[in-house]
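Need a sequence for this fold. Nothing fancy.
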């Protein structure tokens, strides 16, 4: 429904500049997660495109995990 997003406040947003900064960042656990995603794709016969999409989501999830651990200065 249009307009519903405004009802919810998000603590963080992913801007273009943030995404660019994430590309060069080394994320703990990324290699292991990618290997597990590749094994999952192979086991279930998923296309290579699925693996690429999963890899980008893995990077984002790991970056959010690390950011959630960092102090923000905002009250929660």
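Here you go.
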């Amino acid at each position: 429904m249009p307009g519903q997003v405004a009802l919810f406040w998000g603590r963080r947003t992913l801007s273009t500049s943030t995404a660019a900064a994430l590309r060069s960042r080394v994320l703990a656990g990324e290699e292991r997660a990618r290997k597990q995603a590749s094994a999952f794709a192979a086991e279930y016969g998923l296309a290579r495109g699925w693996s690429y999409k999963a890899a980008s989501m893995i990077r984002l999830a790991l970056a959010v995990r690390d950011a959630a651990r960092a102090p923000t200065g905002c009250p929660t």
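For context: Residues 7 and 63 are 25 Å apart (CA to CA).
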